[in-house]
Amino acid sequence: MDHRTRQPAHEYELEVLPGLEHVAETELAAVPLARDLRGLRFWYPGDPERLTRLRSAVAAYRVRAWDVPRPRGLLGHQQLGELTDFLRGVIAQGGHTSFRLGAAGKESGVMQRLAEELQAGLNLPHHPTEGELLIRLRPQQDGPGWEVLARLTPRPLSARAWRVCNREGGLNATLAYATHKLAGQRDVDRIFNPMCGSGTLMIERDLLGPSDALVGVDLDQGAVDCARANIQAAGRTLEVARIDALHTGLPARSFDLIVADLPWGDAIGTHGGNAALYPAFLQEMHRLISRQGRLAVITHEIRLFEGLLRDQTAWAARELLQVYSGGHHPKVYLLNRR
Ligand SMILES: C[S@@+](CC[C@H](N)C(=O)[O-])C[C@H]1O[C@@H](n2cnc3c(N)ncnc32)[C@H](O)[C@@H]1O
């Protein structure tokens, strides 16, 4: 037997953007030793560091349930000792320097007592809004008690270490990962990321593995600078240029995969602008894509985009997913040349 399988297993749960569950389940299924998978919940005896490298999850939590009818029961001497030990195990791995509680009614007297007890027991400051160790309490999902979820990492997994420059309209990195997984990953792909913004789609693709080419463009010099800073922080070498995606001057059929997070109409661009931009974009990408190529589009302008798809015959299109992210419900589509 592998020695690692004899380590005590803990139960874990992944948190994902609504709509990315199946992508996360697929990624989780590839984690060696993860077992008894029930959706995003599972047992795992291995090094939790492996779970902090999951790219489709917003966060990973260690979970434990207590047989108490309400949170007050966690203040009992034995329960508090067990809870403190449980949290110490997570802190030993994650190096958190403060904590906070996440629960309905966290302002209540019981929760405040719990925070005080944990502050003393863990010797860690309680920061109600910024605390690094997020401790969530909720009724047990498959029993009568209460369960505690402790986030493994001080920051969400979606807050990538490479993101040193953030821009309004920046894509959630877990959605960028999911888009690439569903659009398909081939070493021989020549990839284009028009309207690259802060570079999320480019960086997440490059971290997945090799490609034949990977270039991004954006009209905005601030976006180009931002993407370059993030690419450098990621330790990658990728080309980004300040060019209009609709007038690149590149020859026809230059790319096998084009991935684009189009202006969404509120934060960036205007609806009037998008009504002209979107059809021009589809036309120019049709020229730039290879015969067997794929075009993945992320957009919140669903009515506009689906109307355009209905009125054209150049592309075969299907919806890959719809996600809830940052107050929006963008969709991801995959298009092929007809
Ligand atoms: C939704 S944002 C992309 C955000 C990006 N995915 C990120 O994670 O930061 C759309 C971007 O399209 C750019 N843009 C709009 N029209 C463009 C055009 N014709 N050519 C190139 N970039 C354009 C904007 O400057 C903006 O950075």
Secondary-structure topology with pairs:
Layout: E1 10-15, H1 21-29, E2 35-38, E3 41-44, E4 59-66, H2 77-94, E5 99-102, H3 109-122, E6 133-139, E7 146-151, H4 173-183, E8 190-194, H5 200-208, E9 213-218, H6 221-233, E10 239-242, E11 255-261, H7 271-288, E12 289-299, H8 302-310, E13 315-322, E14 331-337
Helix pairs in contact: 2-3, 4-5
The protein binds S-adenosylmethionine.
InterPro entries: RlmKL-like_Mtase, SAM-dependent_MTases_sf
Domain Ribosomal RNA large subunit methyltransferase K/L-like methyltransferase: 160-330
Protein name: RNA methyltransferase
* Main sheet characteristics: 7 strands, mixed
Write the CATH architecture name of the largest domain.
3-Layer(aba) Sandwich
Apparent shape: elongated
> H/E series, N to C?
EHEEEHEHEEHEHEHEEHEHEE
Query: What compounds sit in this structure?
Result: S-adenosylmethionine
InterPro entries: RlmKL-like_Mtase, SAM-dependent_MTases_sf
GO molecular function: methyltransferase activity
Keywords: Methyltransferase, Transferase
Domain Ribosomal RNA large subunit methyltransferase K/L-like methyltransferase: 160-330
